[in-house]
Design brief:
The protein has a single domain, classed as Amino acid/polyamine transporter I (Up-down Bundle). Helix content is 69%, strand content 3%. It contains 15 helices and four strands. A hairpin with a 6-residue loop joins strand 1 and strand 2. It starts with a helix and ends in a 7-residue tail after the last helix. Keywords: Amino-acid transport, Cell membrane, Membrane, Symport, Transmembrane, Transmembrane helix, Transport.
C-alpha cells in the first residue's frame, strides 16, 4: 500500500512538471488552470451546497421569530436579509479570482480572498471571524441533531403514555451517535467529493420544512373548524399580556439575530465556488446558484414562519417539531425529525470541511517530508473499490469531531450561544468584507455615490448585528441561570 501511495505521489509531481513545461498533452485535460484536479461542480451541486448550508432546523423556529416581530416587521426582516445576503454574495463571488473576476488567480478560502484584495490586519480578523463561526456551527449542529433524535423517542413516548407523561430523555447518547457518523463522513477528502451528501441533505431540508408547513396548515384549518381562536397581531406578542416591555425588546432583538444567522452562508461560499468547473465562469454560475439558493430558502422561510405564527399565534413554540407544537400524527413528526437529523449530518460536513482544509494545507506545507502527514495509503473496500486513507487526516479529523461532541455535551445551551456567534460574524463575513473587497477590486472612488451607499449599507448592518448580539447575550444569560447539568430534557 505504501508503494502504491508513493507511486501516486510521484505521478502527481510528474503531471505538475509537464504542466510547468507546457507539455501536458492529454493529461492537461484532467487538471485545471492551477494544476489541481479538474473541478466538476455545477449549478445544481452549488445550489445544493447553498441550500444545505442556509436551510437549517432553525426554519422551524421562524414562527416564534415572527411572533416576536409581528405580521409586518417579521416577513419584512426576512425579505431584507435575503436581499442583502444575495447582493453581498454576488460581490463575494466576483472576488474568488484576483485581481479580476474572470481570468485572475484562484483563491481557495475566504481568508485567501481577503488576503488578495485587502491584506494586513483584516486577514487575521477575517480568519478569526470565519473559523470561530464554523467551529460554533459544528458544535451547535451536534446539539440540534441530538435534540431531533431525542424528539423521535419522546414522540413515541407521548403517543403511548399520553401528552402529560414524563418522557425525559438524555441527549448525550444521541450526541455520541451523531459524532460516530461524523467521524466516518469526515474521511471524505474534500468539498469536491461532498456533492451527493449535500444533495441528500437539501432533499431532507425540503422534506421536514414541507412537513412543518403542512402540519401548520392542518392546525390552522382545525382551529377554524373548531372555532378555536388563535391570537396574532401586526406587532406580534402583546406587551402586558404575553410579555413585559423589557421581554418584548430582548425577544425582538433575539428574533432579528436568529433571522440574520439563518442567512449567513458566506463562511463557506468561496469553498463552494472552488468546486465549480471553469466554464462557464465560476462567478456567473455562483451568482445563479446564490439566487436559486437564497430565493428558495426565503420562500420556505416566509411560508414556514407565517404559517407557524398563524397556527400557534403569540404562543408559538421555539421549534414546533422538536418542541412538540405537534404531537400527532406521531409517525409524521418522527419522520420530520429524522429528516432534520439527516440534513444536519450533511450540513455539519459543509461547515467543517473548510476547517479541515486550512489545517491540512498548513500542516502539509510545514511537514512536507513527513510520511505520516503526506502519504496516502490505498485500501480496498469490498463492493466500494479502492479508497485512500491518510493517517494524519484520520487522526486530526477524528479528534476534531470528538472535541466538538465533548463541547456540546459540556455546554448543551451552546446552541443559544450560536445565535451570538451568528450575530457577531454576520456583519464582517456577509457584509463588511464583501463590500470592502468590491470597492478595492472595482476601484470605486472615495465619496462617490456608489461608495457612499455601500458604506451606508455596511454601517446599517453593523448596527443590526450589534442589536442582535445584545439580544443573544441576554438570552444566553437567562439560559445559564436556569441550566441544570446532567438532567435529561
Amino acid at each position: 500500500m505504501m508503494a502504491a501511495a508513493d507511486s501516486g505521489k510521484t505521478s502527481a509531481l510528474y503531471v505538475d512538471r509537464r504542466l510547468e513545461n507546457g507539455d501536458a498533452g492529454g493529461l492537461k485535460k484532467n487538471v485545471d488552470d492551477d494544476g489541481r484536479e479538474k473541478r466538476t461542480g455545477s449549478l445544481v451541486t452549488a445550489s445544493a451546497h447553498i441550500i444545505t448550508a442556509v436551510i437549517g432546523s432553525g426554519v422551524l423556529s421562524l414562527g416564534w421569530a415572527i411572533a416576536q416581530l409581528g405580521w409586518v416587521v417579521g416577513p419584512s426582516v426576512l425579505v431584507a436579509f435575503s436581499v442583502i445576503t444575495y447582493f453581498t454574495s454576488t460581490l463575494l463571488a466576483d472576488c474568488y479570482r484576483s485581481p479580476g473576476p474572470d481570468n485572475g488567480r484562484r483563491n481557495y478560502t475566504y481568508t485567501d480572498v481577503v488576503r488578495s484584495h485587502l491584506g494586513g490586519l483584516k486577514v487575521t480578523l477575517c480568519g478569526l471571524a470565519q473559523y470561530t463561526n464554523l467551529v460554533g456551527v459544528t458544535v451547535g449542529y451536534t446539539i440540534t441533531a441530538s435534540i431531533s433524535m431525542v424528539a423521535v423517542k419522546k414522540s413515541n413516548c407521548y403517543h403511548k403514555e399520553g401528552h402529560g407523561a414524563d418522557c425525559s430523555v438524555s441527549n448525550y447518547p444521541y450526541m455520541m451517535i451523531f459524532a460516530a457518523v461524523q467521524i466516518l463522513l469526515s474521511q471524505i477528502p474534500n468539498f469536491h467529493k461532498l456533492s451527493w451528501l449535500s444533495i441528500l441533505a437539501a432533499v431532507m431540508s425540503f422534506a421536514y420544512s414541507s412537513i412543518g408547513l403542512a402540519l401548520s396548515v392542518a392546525r390552522i384549518i382545525g382551529n377554524h373548524m373548531n372555532h378555536h381562536e388563535v391570537k396574532t397581531s401586526i406587532t406580534g406578542v402583546t406587551v402586558g399580556v404575553d410579555v413585559t416591555g423589557a421581554e418584548k425588546v430582548w425577544r425582538s432583538f433575539q428574533a432579528i439575530g436568529d433571522i440574520a444567522f439563518a442567512y449567513a452562508y458566506s463562511t463557506v461560499l468561496i469553498e463552494i465556488q472552488d468546486t465549480l468547473r471553469s466554464h462557464p465562469p465560476e462567478n456567473k454560475v455562483m451568482k445563479k446558484a446564490s439566487l436559486i439558493g437564497v430565493t428558495t430558502t426565503t420562500v420556505f422561510y416566509i411560508l414556514c414562519g407565517s404559517m407557524g405564527y398563524a397556527a400557534f399565534g403569540n404562543k408559538a413554540p421555539g421549534n414546533f417539531l422538536t418542541g412538540f407544537g405537534f404531537y400527532e400524527p406521531f409517525w409524521l413528526v418522527d419522520f420530520a425529525n429524522v429528516c432534520i437529523a439527516i440534513h444536519l449530518v450533511g450540513a455539519y460536513q459543509v461547515f467543517c470541511q473548510p476547517i479541515f482544509n486550512v489545517v491540512e494545507s498548513k500542516c502539509n506545507k510545514k511537514w512536507k517530508d513527513s510520511r505520516f502527514v503526506t502519504v496516502d495509503h490505498e485500501v480496498r473496500i469490498p463492493f466500494l473499490g479502492a479508497y485512500t486513507i491518510n493517517m494524519f487526516r484520520l487522526v486530526w479529523r477524528t479528534t476534531y469531531v470528538i472535541v466538538t461532541a465533548l463541547i456540546a455535551m459540556i455546554f448543551p445551551f451552546f446552541n443559544d450561544f450560536l445565535g451570538l456567534i451568528g450575530a457577531v460574524s454576520f456583519y464582517p463575513l456577509t457584509v463588511f468584507f464583501p463590500i470592502e473587497m468590491h470597492i478595492a477590486q472595482a476601484k470605486i472612488p472615495k465619496y462617490s455615490f456608489t461608495w457612499i451607499w455601500l458604506k451606508i449599507l455596511s454601517w446599517t448592518c453593523l448596527i443590526v448585528s450589534l442589536v442582535a448580539a445584545a439580544g443573544s447575550i441576554q438570552g444566553l444569560a437567562s439560559d445559564v441561570k436556569t441550566y441544570k447539568p446532567f438532567k435529561a430534557q
